[in-house]
Amino acid sequence: MTPNAETPTPAWETTGSPVIKIIGIGTAGVALLETLATAEFAGAHRVAVSTDQSSLNVSTTSAKLLLEAKGLRGLGTGGDAERGYALAEENVAGLKSACTGAQVVLLLAGLGGGAGSGITPVVARVARESGALVLAFVTLPFDCEGNRRSAQAKASLAQIKAFADGVICLPNQKAYKLIDEHTSVVDTFRITGGLLLEAIRGIWQLMTRPGLIQIHLADLCALVRDKNAEGVFAFVEASGPARSREVIDKLLAHPLLDEGKALTESDAVMVSLMAGSDLTMAEVNRVMEQITRQCERAQVIMGAMVDDAWKTRLSVTLIAAKHSAPPVPEPVETAFHRPARIGGRPTPTVTPSPSASPVANPGPSPLQMQQREQLVKQHAPGGRRKADGKMKQEMLQLGTITKGRFDKCEPTIHKGEDLDVPTYFRRGMPLN
Amino acid sequence: MFDEANLIVGLEIGTSKICAVIGEINTEGALNIIALGQAPARGVRKGEIVDAPLAEECVRHAIVEAEQMANVEIRDVFLGVTGGHVRGFTNRGVHRVLSADRNITEDDVSDVVKNARAINLPAENSIIHDVRQHFLLDGQPGIVNPAGFVGKLLEVDVHVVHGVTNRMQNSVRLVRNLNLEVNEIVFNGLASALALLSSEQKELGALVIDLGGGTTDYVVYVNGVVRHTGVFAVGGDHISNDLGHGLKVPLSRAEKLKVEYGTAVPDEAARGQSITITNEMNLPIKTLNLEHLQRIMSLRLEELFQIIRLDLEEAELLPYIQGGVFICGGGARIPHIAQLAETIFQAPVALGHTGSLSGLKSALDQPEFLTAIGLVKYGSMRSPKPAPAGFLPNLKTMFNRFLPQR
Q: For chain A, which residues make up each domain, given as ranges?
């Protein structure tokens, strides 16, 4: 049972708009958080968390949290997720205070680096423990960023999935389909950031605006509550008389949905329509009919919102979640036991899985806790002091990498990596 | 001495050595290995020829050695090819049975196979092999021979191995320059698998990894058919190169260090150990960290196996290799290589030996020679069986003709 489960949440119950905190983690997350500093998101509490002073300086939010250890001198984690993890564990109290009072916590991070990959799982856990619904919006690195980063990102994603209620994940590689030969790097990152932003906006609108056909937060919880849910999302917009047909075409061709494949594979789909007051029932019907046809297996939840500012435009935000089987049957602490907080009504659509009995929530098992403690001990600097009393001096990879006898050969490129370059070199194994 | 019409020669132009194997089909129709010639290769990188005159000289040495050993003259060879450009993929052909009674005829079978072979390749590529897999009849999989069945929709999967024509022609040209005919070109990985696997293992599902000097070729058999093939232009040369780079020693020295101290799994005892290398006067010139040597090597091998594992995972074949992982090529000699492969593939691992051929002395049953031996085996499957002398065997072949050929 979550510690705060019994505490009353009057703001939620009375006004219907929950207290939302958006936490940007790591350089990428903080940068994304900055793009949210618009009037639209004025109601949100934004918190920037980073290990790097310079990235925090950029942020305009008042709530900043610099995770620091003496050894790092404010220079960041050096791309080491374990270091980020250890730092976050050390500063759990600070993170906890950042999360308290929120009913919904949205996490933004770019996985792959040290801070994003290391801290995000910890924040997800802490936020959850403080009783909030946790949704993580993360990007995975491009293939060309190398094996280590993608491995780190994957490991981190698995951890986040275990702690957060829902994860919406954007593999940057997929954004390749959206750019062409001449797109600059800056634009590419703007596009990927923009995609994530659209997903956040979709969720945001859903939770804060009164809808014509309202999606309750309870519905959203039901959608993402399986802790292994991994979501994909798409945001399309069209205007004019044929707008309903156009949005469907765009949706089915959306690169992030793998040309509609993601829909057929999904277990739960949330569709949120937004249009001006001229939205007709026929249009809603047309859009929904097409989508439900695509995803026969899925439970479809729909919502519609009318905003006069939208005029002739029709926009559709679609979030499809796939419940992968949990890799280890871990005793999950799910959102089932929080109906009191989710609008005060039970959600009959989803039956609790047998592993989580409504009477006694097992919570993390002692074994798990033990493992976690061990992990923390390993990463905590105190425990490490003996092993490496001084910070490890790693060499900067200056100069060109020679490939020895393969210098003049056709390179062997596999998934963006040149396999001719010694493996130990690519993996960063220190030789001293 | 031998009837030269019955000779089958396999020639593998490898990155580290060139190997020619002569086999003979005896009067019983069985294959017998009678000679093997080898020469260290020069002018070959990553399985492909980069210096033709040098490589030609080496091929000549290997051929001559084999000829002398068997006292025959080689006229034609089955040539093994490999290289990073070789790719394998599976294509499905579909054919609708149009006849009124829905009876599937031999024509339907040949049509569906033809459809499966009609694939879009880049203009510069050509097909090395197209291996027929099982048929599907109205969606029902696993049919070996559908002729005579009744159905509407006949499908077949064909595994196609293809490569860049010009790059494969380079080695063919080189062999022709030596006045030898090339019967067929064969993908090295497939040849190794032929030499290694028994039909039972093919049925169970097996992965064959040929860790060569310049390339790593691998083949997956499931249910008795080739399901997957692949090549990575990474091999033993890369290990030597990594060692040379990491330990800052010349390549020739790195090669020696690899053979002498190399291991696939770093052992605990090596921690903190160092080795001293000496010059030809036995004077110490450098001290190296043994742990580093082992870790550099193990990282490379681990990465290579992981890449193969990922590839199989993507092809959804990983659960099907219960028959085991078989490692051959020079890489099979690396200590603890089986242990490493076992941890990565989670399957039983065996180091390659061919048990299925006669005439092979144990001295020749080495993992390095398996590709060339497999080439001979391939050749024996493709060549027509010689007509045995005498009445009784003749009768046997006569009957054999009426029996279904499997």
A: 16-208, 227-350, 397-432
Nearest to B233 among A412, A422, A424 (CB): A412
Of B381, B354, B376, the residue nearest B66 (C-alpha):
B376
| Shortest Cα distance, chain A CAs vs residue B154, angstroms | 26
Query: In the CATH scheme, what is the homologous superfamily, with its name and number, of domain A227-350?
Result: Tubulin/FtsZ, GTPase domain (3.40.50.1440)
What range does the domain containing B112 cover? 87-162
Residue B291 belongs to domain with CATH number:
3.90.640.10
pLDDT-derived band at B386, boundaries 50, 70, 90: low
The enclosing H or E element of A63 equals strand A63-66
Looking at this protein, which amino acid is placed at residue B315?
Answer: A
Between A143 and A126, residue with greater pLDDT: A126
Least confident range from A77-81, B213-217, B378-382: namely A77-81
Q: Does A344 touch chain B (CB under 8 A)?
A: no
Whole-angstrom CA distances from B134 to B156, B158, B225, B396 are 6, 8, 8, 29
Measured in degrees and rounded to the nearest 5, phi and psi for residue B361 equal: -75, 155
Judge whether A414 is closer than 8 Å to chain B, CB to CB: yes
**What CATH number is attached to the domain comprising B154?**
3.30.1490.110
Q: Which residue in the block uniquely carries the two structure tokens 């986040």?
A: A160
Chain B hits for A405, Cβ within 8 Å: 45, 237, 241, 251
**Beta carbons of A414 and B307 less than 8 Å apart:** yes
What CA–CA distance (Å, rounded) separates B307 from B320? 17
Q: What is the pLDDT of residues A216-267, one digit of tens each?
A: 666 766 666 554 556 777 778 888 778 888 888 888 777 777 766 777 777 7
Cβ <8 Å between B300 and A412: no
Interface probe with A: pick from B167, B253, B299, B313, most Cβ of A within 10 Å: B299
Judge whether B379 lies within some domain.
Answer: no
**pTM score:** 0.56
| B263 in any annotated domain | yes
Q: How many domains is chain B built from?
A: 2
Instruction: Give the neighbor-by-neighbor strand order of the sheet with B76-81.
Output: B31-40, B17-25, B7-13, B76-81, B181-187
Residue B11 pLDDT > 50, yes or no? yes
User: Exposed (0-12), middle (13-18) or buried (19+): which is A338, by Cβ within 10 Å?
Assistant: buried
- Average pLDDT on B219-223 reads 93
* Residue B136 within a domain: yes
Q: Which of the listed residues B296, B317, B341 is the one where a domain comes to its end?
A: B296
pLDDT confidence tier of residue A339, bands split at 50, 70 and 90: very low
Instruction: Please indicate whether residue A279 or residue B205 has the higher confidence score (pLDDT).
Output: B205
Residue A229's DSSP bridge partners are A323
* Beta pairing partners, B349: B325
B220 secondary structure, DSSP code: E
- Contact state of A410 with B46 under an 8 Å Cβ cutoff: yes
Tell me the average pLDDT across A358-365: 43
pLDDT digits (tens, 9 = 90+) for B289-325: 999 999 999 999 999 999 999 999 999 999 999 889 9
Look up the ipTM and state it. Answer: 0.81
Over residues B112-124, the mean pLDDT reads 86
Contact yes or no for B357/B31 (Cβ under 8 A): yes
- List alpha helices for B178-250, DSSP H: 188-196, 199-204, 236-247
d(CA B235, CA A420): 10
- Calculate the alpha carbon distances from B374 to A144, A223, B78, B365, B396 in Å: 38, 56, 10, 12, 27
Q: Candidates 3.40.605.10, 3.40.50.720, 3.40.50.1440, 1.10.10.10; correct CATH number of A16-208?
A: 3.40.50.1440
Please report the number of interchain residue pairs, chain A to chain B, with beta-carbon separation below 8 angstroms.
65
- Calculate how close chain A gets to B241, using CA atoms only, in Å: 6
Last residue of a domain, which of B142, B162, B182? B162
